[in-house]
């Protein structure tokens, strides 16, 4: 597995746009659309993730709605493996398993199809999202993968907002890999 050098990390970081006060005052939103529309940056990222995961015997990649879908599905195509969506409530059409999790104010919920891993026992699943902040979404996703009969071998993020401590917390449940730490 090839590590990403400092220059490449900086290139990826520079390809992501910071949008201040979105979606509410005080938040600096990491806008990954500027990475996606830069073919060199997007391919650099996919080359790196392919080299990290191509010999890990992964059966499925689960992506978290919605930006996680983009990276997860693109990597699935590279690795020739199946994609599983983890979605907001009432979006998945078939029978689902749900998991609630706490937000700063209130609760949220995510869902996975009961047969997401197509009957493969203890399927080896990689979880992907664009960013980890408090880690609430990722922790609930790891739980869902387990409840659906899968085994989450790693949770992978493009960006880790270190100050929010989510990845430290998640490491108690699963291996965590973040391409960029901010
Ligand atoms: P959390 O559950 O707090 O770790 O939040 C992670 C989810 O919220 C991910 O799906 C991110 O896409 C989104 N998110 C949280 N904070 C930001 C941010 N500053 N910029 C972009 N996306 C964010």
UniProtKB/TrEMBL annotation:
Main subcellular location of this protein, as a coarse class: cytoplasm
UniProt keyword annotations, A-Z: Cytoplasm, Glycosyltransferase, Purine salvage, Transferase
SUPFAM superfamilies found in the cross-reference section: PRTase-like (SSF53271)
EC id: 2.4.2.7
HAMAP family registered for this protein in UniProt: Aden_phosphoribosyltr (MF_00004)
GO cellular component, one term: cytoplasm
Protein name: Adenine phosphoribosyltransferase
Role played: Catalyzes a salvage reaction resulting in the formation of AMP, that is energically less costly than de novo synthesis.
Catalyzed chemical reaction(s): AMP + diphosphate = 5-phospho-alpha-D-ribose 1-diphosphate + adenine
UniProt-listed GO biological process terms: adenine salvage; AMP salvage; purine ribonucleoside salvage
Subunit structure: Homodimer.
InterPro entries assigned: Ade_phspho_trans, PRTase-like, PRTase_dom, UPRTase/APRTase
Domain Phosphoribosyltransferase: 39-160
Stored NCBIfam families: apt, PRK02304.1-3, PRK02304.1-5
Recorded metabolic or biological pathway in which this protein acts: Purine metabolism; AMP biosynthesis via salvage pathway; AMP from adenine: step 1/1
Family indicated by similarity: Belongs to the purine/pyrimidine phosphoribosyltransferase family.
PANTHER family reported in the protein's UniProt record: ADENINE PHOSPHORIBOSYLTRANSFERASE
Compartments where found: Cytoplasm
UniProt-recorded Gene Ontology molecular function terms: adenine binding; adenine phosphoribosyltransferase activity; AMP binding
């Amino acid at each position: 597995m090839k590590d990403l050098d400092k220059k490449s990390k900086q290139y990826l970081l520079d390809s992501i746009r910071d949008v201040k006060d979105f979606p509410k005052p005080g938040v600096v939103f990491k806008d990954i659309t500027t990475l996606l529309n830069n073919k060199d940056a997007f391919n650099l990222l996919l080359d790196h993730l392919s080299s990290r995961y191509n010999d890990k015997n992964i059966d499925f990649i689960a992506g978290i709605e919605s930006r996680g879908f983009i990276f997860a599905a693109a990597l699935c195509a590279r690795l020739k493996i199946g994609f599983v969506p983890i979605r907001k409530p009432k979006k998945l059409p078939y029978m689902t398993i749900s998991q609630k999790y706490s937000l700063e104010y209130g609760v949220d919920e995510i869902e996975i199809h009961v047969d997401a891993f197509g009957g493969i026992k203890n399927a080896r699943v990689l979880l992907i999202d664009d960013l980890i902040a408090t880690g609430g979404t990722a922790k609930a996703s790891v739980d869902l993968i387990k409840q659906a009969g899968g085994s989450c071998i790693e949770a992978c993020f493009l960006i880790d907002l270190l100050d929010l401590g989510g990845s430290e917390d998640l490491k108690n449940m699963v291996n965590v890999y973040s391409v960029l730490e901010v």
